[in-house]
Each structure stands twice: as C-alpha cells, then as structure tokens.
Amino acid sequence: RFISLENSYHGETVGALAVTDVPLFSSTYAGLLKPGLRAPSPDARRALPGESAADAARKAIQALENLLTKHAGEVAAVIVEPLVQGAAGMVMYDPLYLSELRRLCDQYQVHLIADEIAVGFGRTGSLFAYQQADITPDFLCLSKGITGGFLPLSCVLTSSPIYQAFYHDDVTRGFLHSHSYTGNALACAAALAVLDIFAEEDVLAANADKAQRFNSMMTDLQARPDVRNFRHKGMIWAFEVDTSRADFAQACFAAMLRRSCLLRPIGNTVYFMPPYMITDEEMAFLIAATAATLEELARASNTADGQSIALP
Known about the structure:
Layout: E1 2-5, H1 14-18, H2 23-26, E2 37-39, H3 53-70, E3 77-80, E4 84-85, E5 91-92, H4 96-108, E6 111-115, E7 139-142, E8 155-158, H5 160-165, H6 185-201, H7 203-217, H8 219-222, E9 227-233, E10 236-241, H9 248-258, E11 269-272, H10 280-302
Parallel strand pairs: 1-2, 1-3, 3-6, 6-7
Antiparallel strand pairs: 4-5, 7-8, 9-10, 10-11
C-alpha cells in the first residue's frame, strides 16, 4: 500500500490517482483505484497561535508515525510533494517534515517517493526541494521544468540498490515496461539545454535576487485587507482572498485575462509561479493587474444582490 498526504495531487493515470486526494480528479475512477492511506498534511497554516511551521510539521509527523505503526508491514512507500502541495492550494510546509519523514521511512523500511514534477528545477529556491531538508529520496519524479516547458519529458530517478534489483541477465527479473516515445531524442536535447543553462547562468542565484525584488514590489498587495495567509517559497507566491463570491476563481481568471495576464486561482487561493525569465517590468505589471482585479471584484461583490455564497 501507499501513503500520501491529504489533498495530495500526483497525476491522473490509475496508479497516480490512487495516491491523489482531490475528488474532482479521482472520484470518477474510484472503482478502479487501489485504496491508499492518507496522512495529515503538514500545512504551515495549521500552526496554532504561538506555534511555528515546524510545530505543525511535528504534529503531522506524529500522525504519520501512528499510521506507519498501525499498518506496519503493509506499506511499500510514502509519496509526497516536497515543501509545496500544488493542487491543494499551494500548501507550504517546513523542511523539518521531510527530514523526519526520511527518518521514519528508514525506521519502518518503506520507500520515500519525492514527486518534484511541479517543484523541481529551482522552483522552491534549490535545484530540488528535498535538498532543503538535507535528505535523499528513494525515488525522484521529474518533469515540467526539466525542459523549460518547451517539450514534454518526464523521468524517474532512483538509488543504485533499487536499480540493481531490476538489472539482471534473466529478462523475467527486468523492468520491461516502457512507452512508445521513451527517450525521445528531441525532448532529451531540450532537457540537456536546460541543464546547461542552469550550470552556465547560475539560475538559482539569479532567481533568489529576482524573488527578493518581487517580494519588495508586493508590499502593498500583501497589505490589502482581503489578502490573508501570504506565503512565499523560492519562485512561488500564494495567498487567500477573503471573498463572498462563489465564482471568485472564474471571475478573477476572466478579469486578469482582460488585463493581459494569465492567472488561474485555485478556489480563493491566488498564486504566482512566473517563468524564470520574467523581468522587473513584468513583475510590476502582474502585481498591478492583480491588485486592480481584486479591487474590481471586491467592488462588484459589495454591490451584489446577496445571492453569492461564501467560499469554504
């Protein structure tokens, strides 16, 4: 069996849906899915007054350990989105959770799978998010940033002992599964070009400087009375909007399109995951457009006829 975090998202194939906790994607196929186990999210927003994000992580780890104890011998692996749970609403958590998760996986002899398809290649500030916890997963899932988004490519990295378990002269011991376009030469060439850019242009350092400037531009937006839970990790920013509009996400998306920006809120969570090539002028444009959109929607909500309902 597999353990994943509540509100997790890992993809839409049958195996990935079994460890995805977003009913919008998984409920239709429930009859096909192998039931998994869910562990509480280490969401930093769950910290009580006076507690830190690390305290929230410790409580989540204790719950995970209870789950591992109860199901000892049943669990093959724990799969997580390191540091940021994307589809859950850009949930961010303390790296302590990952270091403690590694310890528990070793203790209970289960594999640790890091799904870094969304957060890998510098998105959280380090090349890979798990590095901020000074650990190494048993499996590392990568895609998206590996080609800069130009061509579709994904890969799974694993440790030598696991690789050797499937490397054998006897073909029945081999891992024979593959896809028609495995190892696509053009996509791999794009990935190699991206790796060269990371090495030659010091992308991580450039992103750190860019993020600092972006933060300084965001002061007024962060101070808005309808903005709460403002958070930032590397090249990801997110916050919730206090609104009574049930259609907030769609209305915000449409209003931003009118301002020449592509922004797709998750419920009432607004987030920015800009391309690394974004300029200071484009940052300022995006922030101004977002502020104007929030102001527009707030005015419309205040003059509504009262038929809208509050978002959870």
